Sequence to fold (231 residues):
Amino acid sequence: MSSEATKFFAIRTTARQEVNVALMIELVAESRRKDVGEEEIYSVIVPPGIKGYIILEAPGLHAVYNVIRGLKHIKGRASGALKWEDVERFVVPKPVIEIIKEGDIVEIVAGPFRGLQAKIVTIDKEKNEVVLNILEAAYPLQITVPADYIRPAKRG
Amino acid sequence: MVRKVPVASSRAFKACKNCRYLVPVHESRCPNCGSSDFVEEWSGMVIILSPERSKVAKALGITKPGRYALQLGPT
Fold:
């Protein structure tokens, strides 16, 4: 069977129990593989930053029901299958430097200015660096930091 | 009937900085790549059960089954 036959199904779980549910599914899937002799679940994904959901990669819905039946902390299944593009977002996140643009407000998450908010002045994609204007400084203060040191601030 | 399976919580694991493999906190070496460089803070997890068939494993370049972190460092 090729990888094109795989489908992704979202499972609803109790909040903060996502990792435990994933580990339980791993154990059940392993024991079922020994019984049935074939892999029913290809992977289990716990998406970062999303509470109450996990994603199962399987050839079909029957395989999902076989492993989640009777498990604790499972609240149900979101209807339909997920597209690979939706899953890819969690699995292979785009680098920060691809998302941000000049003028965006970002939060500094590492280095001596950690915790401060700043505005992007210029972006150097080749060096993976950004020049920031610290918003909370008393006087204009520009710093150059690696793009890994920042994350987009929540808009609102 | 509710199946009860004893499992460890997410705090029981640390992630290898080199290959993102999740190992129990008491381990000193990564069983996947042999590195001894770990991070305690990680988020997101993918458990690969069938690397040959999994599209996720192919996208991440994973060839060995096991548990891997999706993001390293504080969230």
Observations:
- The domain at 7-72 of chain B is CATH 2.20.28.90 (Rubrerythrin, domain 2).
- The helical segments of chain B are 55-60.
- Residues 4-9 of chain B have pLDDT under 50 and may be disordered.
